[in-house]
Amino acid sequence: MSSNAPSSSAGGVGSADSAAPRRNSKRPKYSKFTQQELPACKPILTPRWVISAFMLVSIVFIPIGVVSLFASRDVVEIIDRYETECVPENLRDNKVSFIQSDANKTCTRKLRVKKLMKQPIYVYYQLDNFYQNHRRYVKSRSDSQLKDNSSWNDVSSCKPEDMSNGQPIVPCGLIAWSLFNDTYNFSLNNQQLAVNKRGISWKSDRDSKFGNDVFPRNFQNGTLKGGKILDPTVPLSKQEDLIVWMRTAALPTFRKLYGKIERDLQPNETIHVTLENNYNTYSFNGKKKLVLSTTSWLGGKNDFLGIAYLTVGGLCFFLALSFTVVYLLKPRRLGDPSYLSWNRNPGGH
Amino acid sequence: MSIVTTDTFSWYQVTRLVKQGTGRVTLGIGDGANDVGMIQEADIGVGISGVEGMQAVMASDFSVSQFRFLERLLVVHGHWCYKRIAQMVCYFFYKNIAFGLTLFYFEAFTGFSGQSVYDDLYMILFNVVLTSMPVISLGVFEQDVSSDVCLEFPTLYQQGPRNLFFDWYRILGWMGNGLYSSIVIFVLNVIIFYDQAFRAEGQTTDMAILGTIMFTCIICAVNFQISLIMSHYTWIQHFLIWLSVLTWFLFLFVYGMLSPTYSKNVFQILTEALAPAPVYWTATLLVTIACTLPYLAHISLQRCFQPMDHHIIQEIKYLKKDEKDKVMWKREKTKAREKTKFGFTARVDAYIRSLRGRLHKKTHSLKSKDGNPS
Q1: Helices A304-329/B168-192 angle, 10° precision
Q2: Residues whose CB is less than 8 angstroms from the CB of residue B103 and which lie 6 or more positions away in sequence, other chains included
Q3: Residues A27, A35: Cα–Cα separation, whole Å
């Protein structure tokens, strides 16, 4: 490795080359870039900068934290866990056989509204201990098949749910096969509460990933049904429950949008829910919850963002104060040569 | 230590003896073909190109054109290179640990099935495009003090041999910083985007969205961190840091514009899902600051209580105390140099010769004044 270092030749002050008569000089052309003399800003960390930086962070973060916390406090949430209570008491010893049997799975629940809930109120189903993010589960789908009718045959990545009775399944794969199939019906004061199930999925999914010429076929035709049965006359781009379900969740505890209630709910109202407890989460000790929630500009109910901002802002404020105290008690004059190492321990390098 | 040899003992054998005997790093400098053996034997070989040809240059690690440039090579470029390489390597450890460990933490939430939370292209581009440019500009342009100060204070070169910037304390410190950053990035994002909706329209987070958010936090935190490490900002460093962050958003935008056949889960993720969501931007800001806060506190404390030599000199230059108090500056410069003891007799001889030469000139001019032709 031989590096010719033209930058080393920059030190030629008073060299023979500059005297007349000039020999043929091989000195490279000077440029600020190659001589590393580009104009530069060299900020240094003075006490003023340190304290200002911390104060700035705390001044910005504390109001953001307060605003976030207020937004989260405004959100009203009703959570109802029902998977154990919706199994009749006498059959609770063997919930798996109950859910796999043909018994009546209708269940009624009562939800009490504690605070005013302004519309739209979002209805979610929440599953716990369900690993939609498992690698083999995430792989088990065929995006080309979902998008385009001409690829209805493309089921290779969908094993084990690729073929049934010798025919390809549309939509294939474990994700579609395990589609959630509990249903909820809401009534308030004996009047049906309408749940809008349109527009619950991402628009880009409806328009570009799920074709409007793709229809379910040969779906849930095998011996073991994993979930919901799809209407073969409705194209996939309109099967919004499927579209929402196919967006695999990040964590084992997740909520998915079921629908929207488009009227206000007053405090102390009681909502009656008639639900069909069809989905088998009992084989793996999963939990099922029904969630009604309003949203704010920040989303659903999560105090954590506001608390985190307040914590970091408060910590920065505390650091700014501590540094002020430190700099007042033990000041070090900037540029004080007595701190140079050869002055601090002379002769002891 | 000075060594004088006779012709029968070659220089490369001397170099080997010195290396083995003292265990120190040796530098060999020469300009002729007979020096090639020594140059190759020494740890650092410097070849001088010139009168005796290019053999020494071709065998050497570094080559200069004049012997006196050795001073600049060591004291300016050697000093800068040591610090640049030390900082670059520590930063590389830091950013890859901060990124890689988040993948491992996520595995705990996927039943250890090996599912990656990031899209493949994110991971490919991380080290190639998104975080490489600022650190390369750090390695090429970083100067803790300017070249004149390096020449005036040769003691600063000692930071290299004493290994002040690449000892275990620093390496482990940077790895610890990476570990802390990875924990902060992962935990804060998972809790903020846990199960509730993240937008006013009620949609919940899925894996592609969480992965993109976490990756955005990593890119911003890591690039903000390097801006705190640098002390010498040319326009290139500014530009490259901003470019890295903007490239990430631009890439996300363009990737999202491709057909879903190629972009799969990232299709329109920025334009549709993330950019309009205020929680995306607030979470990124929170995580970026939370990751870099301990480092900022650490360097502030270090500069206050245990400033290093180059810190003091930087401050003197910044406050222009070298111009205001020239006496102090000259005094410190002298203290920072130790008179060399090498070649003592040779220099004494040269001094005597120069004195004789001056005396000869004086007597010569006196004689010519008397009218005697010389």
Answers
A1: 150
A2: B116, B117, B118
A3: 12
Mean model confidence pLDDT for chain B: 90
Q: Please name the residues in contact with A324: beta carbons below 8 A apart, sequence gap of 6 or more.
A: A51
Rg, chain A, Cα only: 34
Q: Is the pLDDT of residue A317 over 90?
A: yes
Instruction: Say how far apart CA A8 and CA A24 lie, in whole Å.
Output: 19
Cα–Cα distance for residue pair A68/A306, rounded to 1 Å: 5
* Cβ–Cβ below 8 Å for B195 and A3: no
Residues B257, A159, A141: CA angle, nearest 5 degrees: 20
Q: Is A9's pLDDT higher than 70?
A: no
Q: ipTM of the assembly? A: 0.89
Q: 3-class SS at B280?
A: helix
**Between A57, A253, A342, which is nearest B289 by CB?**
A57
Q: How far is A126 from chain B (nearest CA, A)?
A: 8
Name the 3-class secondary structure at A279: coil
Q: Tell the burial category of A185 from Cβ atoms under 10 Å away from its Cβ (0-12, 13-18, 19+).
A: middle
State whether B203 and A334 contact (CB < 8 Å). Answer: no
* Structure tokens that stand for B120 in this block: 């493949």
Residue B205 with chain A: CB contacts under 8 Å: 249-250, 254
- Going from the C-alpha of B123 to that of each of A110, B185, B234, B256, the distances in angstroms are 48, 16, 29, 16
For residue B278, the distance in angstroms to the closest alpha carbon of chain A comes to 6
Please choose, from the candidates A231, A228, A205, A213, the residue with its C-alpha nearest in 3D space to the C-alpha of residue A145: A213
Report CB contact under 8 Å: B319, A335: yes
Instruction: For residue range B314-336, list pLDDT tens digits in order.
Output: 999 888 888 888 888 888 888 87
Report pLDDT for A14.
Answer: 38
Instruction: Please tell me the pTM assigned to this model.
Output: 0.88
**Under an 8 A CB cutoff, do A5 and B315 touch?**
no
What does the block give as tokens for A123?
Answer: 């209805």
Average pLDDT of chain A to the nearest whole number? 88
| Contact indicator for A100, A342 with CB cutoff of 8 Å | no
Contact B286, A309 (CB under 8 A): yes
The tokens of A10 are what? 């920059």
Look at A331-335, B84-88, B298-302 and tell me which has the smallest mean pLDDT: A331-335
Q: What string of DSSP letters covers A106-171?
A: EEEEEEE--S-BPSPEEEEEEEES--TT-HHHHH---HHHHH-GGGTT--GGGTTSSEETTEE-BS
Q: Count H helices and E strands in chain A, helices first.
A: 9, 12
Query: Is a pLDDT exceeding 80 seen at residue A46?
Result: yes
Judge contact between A250 and B117, C-beta under 8 A.
yes
CA gap A271, A181 in Å, rounded: 21
